[in-house]
Write a structure and sequence with these properties.
Layout: E1 8-13, H1 28-43, E2 47-52, H2 60-65, H3 70-94, E3 99-103, E4 112-113, H4 116-124, E5 128-132, H5 142-152, E6 157-162, E7 167-168, E8 180-181, E9 183-185, H6 186-192, H7 199-207, E10 212-216, H8 222-227, E11 234-237
Parallel strand pairs: 1-2, 1-6, 2-5, 3-4, 3-5, 6-10, 9-11
Antiparallel strand pairs: 7-8, 10-11
Length: about 240
């Protein structure tokens, strides 16, 4: 039987991951593919928490730059993450994965409020838990929400699924000579100004000795390969 190196993880997905090649919104084919990856990992007994961004629907920071009140924009962005969470929940449950959505902003008709002990109980019963609405506070990103929830649920690691296969010293899209790190420390991430997660999230993970693995989620099977301990992506750890 396949054996995971992690018991419980927090998977961080960007909202853009759900829109595929579309300029906006949710691509059903992409969501179905992500749900399949999650279902395969859940089937080997890994407890999975998920935080999704909302950038495929609305970005509070971008709206603020165009003159919208920052707090209003951030709350709108939180609502976008709820839409994404409900979409992913639907596709997961089509694959037989029992799923709960917990939100940082109360909306009982749609989802449970975030309660740490209840979330942990869901994990123990084999359910996937999607944490939506960020931290429930403006000025904090979903990266920070992912780090915070991972610490609260005592996850073994934050796994950040992206469109690139790890952390590079420069943007590989614009620099063909960019060098990929197999492993890097939190302090080097900060010193080099690398855009792995925002500084608040990095600090939270560093202070709580919570490793981050950055990997390419768009390549089929990568999520499971990371879980099984293969050398995929980049691992961010303490010194």
């Amino acid at each position: 039987m396949e054996k995971s190196i992690y018991k419980r993880i927090l998977l961080k997905l960007s909202g853009e991951a759900l829109m595929g090649k579309q300029g906006l919104g949710i691509d059903p084919i992409i969501v179905d593919s992500i749900a399949e990856e999650i279902a395969e990992v859940q089937a080997i007994g890994v407890q999975i928490g998920i935080v999704i961004g909302g950038g495929n629907i609305f970005r509070g920071l971008s709206a603020s730059a165009r003159g919208m009140d920052r707090v209003s924009g951030d709350f709108m962005g939180m609502l976008a993450t709820v839409i994404n969470a409900l979409a992913l929940q639907d596709y997961l449950e089509r694959k037989g994965v029992t799923t709960r959505v917990q939100t940082a902003i109360k909306m009982e008709e749609l989802a449970e409020p975030f309660i740490r002990r209840r979330a942990i109980r869901h994990f123990e019963k084999g359910r996937v838990v999607i944490f939506a609405a960020g931290t429930g506070n403006p000025y904090f990103t979903t990266d920070t929400a992912a780090a915070l929830r991972a610490i609260e649920i005592q996850a073994d690691a934050v796994l950040k699924g992206t469109k690139v296969d790890g952390v590079y010293d420069s943007d590989p899209k614009h620099n063909s000579q960019a060098t990929k790190f197999q492993q890097i420390s939190f302090m080097d991430i900060v010193k080099k100004g690398l855009k792995v997660m925002d500084f608040t999230a990095i600090t939270l993970c560093m202070d709580n000795k919570l490793p981050i693995v950055v990997f390419n989620l768009t390549q089929k099977g990568n999520f499971k390969r990371v879980i099984l301990g293969e050398n995929i992506g980049t691992k961010v750890i303490g010194d």
